[in-house]
Design brief:
- It is globular, with a radius of gyration of 19 Å.
- 43% of the residues lie in helices and 15% in strands.
- With 323 residues, it is an alpha/beta fold.
- It has an eight-stranded parallel beta sheet with strand order 1-9-8-6-5-4-3-2. The chain has a three-stranded antiparallel beta sheet with strand order 7-11-10.
- It has 16 helices and eleven strands.
- The protein folds into two domains: 216 residues, TIM Barrel, CATH 3.20.20; 69 residues, no CATH class.
């Protein structure tokens, strides 16, 4: 059985599953694998340059994939969007910052426009900008986000932007999460952390292992990794990551961290050498449900099968009214 939603119709995909464009993790192999399995694969360049974008589109080997950008960072180097559009992506997604300067060129290209939001007001603004799909992101998500949890945010966004399709993001790591998102009015789910721990992910093996071994209780929303990387992320965004020695030392002491220049070099070295006691592993609260590392195609299949089973079980809770 396949789910038929406005997302699957609009994007011409089999399953209502979108790969989150995780920066430096969602490369061409992973995006292509998700697309081949029936979802929509998305590249995640993060802060990467034009060469990375060109290389990872090539790595996708002609599969129909999209790409996501950090809007405030894209303004620093807008040529990256041109490089992506030259390769005919299925979709362009913008998150964090003002996407307005880039909307017209995306729409003229024929790519579908996905705008990720963290508030109902931002969802209304996305609708006015002409979003084809609005992505409602809850605070459960790994990586950067804001303050509202998905369970209450999602239906409010669905109501605010109807009839624009809404995709749920934040904590969806198994089919029960996908089923819940559909029940709350979404037409699909954008999933990151579960795909982080896959064979095709660009994440280092040690980082994948930490995701598998971690739990949602071991994550924290923090600014310390952005400060250490000298990235001036705008308010109100923080990032959800696995706790490690670095967060235990610096979380809650952000002004001191920002003033300690020696930390910047040591942090950069830790990132380069894969020392994840210091370096960041972005992960969402749903990592309790990430129990192994395997092919992305199996993750897509499992999400669909589990969602179908969850919906079938839920139907049994409703008794017919008689009399």
């Amino acid at each position: 059985m396949a789910f038929v939603t406005r997302l699957t119709d609009l994007m011409a995909i089999k399953h209502p599953i979108v790969l989150a464009p995780m920066g430096g993790v969602a490369g061409g192999r992973l995006a292509a694998a998700v697309t081949r399995a029936g979802g929509l694969g998305m590249l995640g360049p993060g802060y990467a340059d034009e060469a990375w974008i060109a290389r990872e589109f090539e790595e996708a080997k002609g599969e129909r994939v999209g790409i996501g950008f950090i809007a405030w960072d894209l303004a620093r180097a807008p040529r990256r969007l041109d490089v992506a559009l030259e390769r005919g992506p299925a979709a362009i997604m913008f998150s964090f910052g003002d996407p307005a300067p880039f909307v017209d060129v995306v729409r003229r290209s024929g790519a579908k426009l996905l705008l990720q939001v963290q508030t109902v007001q931002a969802a209304r603004e996305a609708a006015l900008l002409g979003a084809d799909i609005v992505v409602a992101q809850g605070t459960e998500a790994g990586g950067h986000g804001a303050a509202r949890a998905l369970f209450s945010l999602l239906p409010a966004v669905v109501d605010a932007v109807h009839p624009i399709p809404v995709v749920a993001a934040g904590g969806v790591c198994d089919g029960r999460g996908l089923a819940a998102a559909l029940t709350l009015g979404a037409c699909g789910a954008l999933t990151g952390t579960r795909f982080y721990a896959t064979d095709e992910s660009l994440a280092p093996a040690e980082a994948k292992g930490r995701v598998v071994r971690g739990t949602g209780d071991h994550t924290v929303r923090t600014r310390v990794f952005d400060i250490a990387r000298r990235l001036d992320w705008p308010a109100p965004f923080t990032g959800r990551a696995l706790q490690n020695d670095f967060t235990r030392r610096w979380h809650g002491r952000e002004p001191e961290l920002a003033a300690d220049a020696a930390v910047f070099d040591s942090y950069a070295k830790a990132s380069q050498t894969g020392d994840f006691d210091t370096a960041v592993v972005w992960a969402g609260e749903g990592i309790d449900l990430v129990r192994d590392i395997g092919p992305a195609s199996r993750v897509v299949d499992d999400l669909v099968v589990e969602a179908e089973a969850s919906i079938a079980r839920s139907a049994g809770f409703v008794a017919p009214v008689t009399g």
